[in-house]
Amino acid sequence: MGLALIGGFVLRIRAVAGTVMVGLMRVAEWVPAQYLADGSRRARRSIRSPATTSSTRLS
């Protein structure tokens, strides 16, 4: 029973650590992160493609 209890604690700690790690990876890719490691500016992604903007629609 002692080994199972210790294993349960370890599993819980690893699950929390994994969740925190994924959260930090999302923060690293968040919109304000505009500069790359070499100091160059990252290209901004457009939400809409130019073909779907209101100025190019025919109807």
Provide a descriptive summary of the structure in words.
The protein is mainly alpha-helical and 59 residues long. The protein has a domain at 12-38. Helices cover 46% and strands 0% of the residues. It contains one helix and no strands. The chain is rod-shaped and about 55 Å long. The N and C termini lie far apart (71 Å).
Quick overview of this protein structure:
By secondary structure, the chain is mainly alpha-helical. It has one helix at residues 2-28. It has a domain at 12-38.
Chain-wise SSE layout:
Blueprint: H1 2-28
Q: How far is it from the N-terminal to the C-terminal residue, by CA?
A: 71 Å
What's the gyration radius in Å? 22 Å
Secondary-structure element order, N to C = H
Number of helices: 1
Shape: rod-shaped
Major β-sheet annotation = none
Low-confidence stretches: none
Helix content, binned percent: 40-55%
The average pLDDT score comes to: 80
Record field, number of beta strands: 0
Features:
1 helix; 46% helix; single chain; mainly alpha; 59 residues
